[in-house]
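Q: What does the predicted 3D structure of Flagellin look like?
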Amino acid sequence: MKINHNLNAINAHNKMKINNNYYSKTMNRLSSGLKINSAADDSAGLSISQKMKTQIRGLYLVERNIRDGIGLLQTAEGGLSEIENPSLQRIRELAVQASNGTLTLEDRKHIQKEINELKDGIDDIANNTEFNGIKVLSPPTENIPVIGTADIIFIVDNTGSMGPIQTQVANNIVSFTQSMLSKGITELRIGVLSYYDNTYTKHEFSGEKWTSDPLAVAQVLNEISITNNGSYENNMQAIGEVVNHYDFNENTPGKNNKHIILITNEVGDDNANIDVAKTLLQDEGIQLHGIFNDSFTDLKSVVQSTGGKLIDLSSLDWGANLSSVIGTHIGESSTIIQHDKMQTIYLQVGPNFKQNFKIELFDARTHKLGISDLSVETIEDAQIAISTLDKVIELVSSRRSRFGAYQNALEHLNNSVSIYKENIVAAESRIGDADVSEEMMNLTKFRILLETSQHTLVKSNEVMNQILSFLNE
């Protein structure tokens, strides 16, 4: 017998603490229904589960977004249906009637009055068909905010002739970037591509092709090495390289926010690819600005064809001039009114970035349909009206079909989202939800072990009492 250390009691006490901990965790799982109640329960499982929950919550909202989109399309299609029949069909009937030679001028004037009323009705439908305050058959009448955004790519010639002015170029581009940010441009994305002798380098900023950090731009520019190779025709090829390999933002309404700035000191007179570059830039809505010497007549024609600006490379502070030029094109955050531009609706149909569905709305007002001045006051006018109305009815029918196709696509998307949500909920449940039957089994086991360890601890303490009894004897 030992007095100083009751080893049996210590062992029983340790076991009791362990069993009590397991018992408490099991009780937590049963009371919460969750297998993972803290990061200590399963750190990897917790991370996976939280990512899945983010997706699940997004998917619930996506389903609502899709249903709202379907509702918008049904509203737009319903409005077009009323415009097509009876309005357009009735106008055509009247045009056919007015084509008859048995009618007098007075008769046709009465027919014209009814047609005018029907046209007013079409405009009423187009202007008043709304979904959640959004006009779906006519442009919005409220002011549309224009947010200052810009994608700007510098194409830097790194041939030998640029060596003496490399630092000047870097400083001016950094100055330009700082100036643009100070103008209140809410989203500025700068990219840099350097080239020589059919070799193009798309420089990255911490793994990204875009940055708005002037210091990051400066670091990249200072790391560009100058070579002795290069030719004039590489300029146009570099433009094609930029257009094909950089993901530009969408243009802001009313503004041209895609810009390429070509910086070169190379002299040449080869016209190769000039026309191709012009077409490519114009098709993509990109403005080309040139920072080069006065002798580049061919490059000037490309710049001017896109509405860009020419700046003298020898100017020490061309960065400030460039900022002034492009800042005017982009504009600070402001408000303009777009009376004749239909909205494009983007539905968020996925839980992640840029998972969008594009809906192009249709302007159904009479002047956009081409019937605002429709006349049947002469037989010739009535004949022209019949031909015009046939085309308009076909146009409206095709737009109704497009809205129907949008709706079918969204319904398929909704079914896909529902299946995806069901599967990801099931997967998250397997990770995070507690199995009640298993936890009840564990609860019974740990309760018995806890009671056993408590009983053992009591018995171990009784041994000490036996020592006292022995000493008393």
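A (community wiki): The structure tokens above were generated from the sequence. The longest strand covers residues 187-196. Residues 24 and 443 are 9 Å apart (CA to CA).
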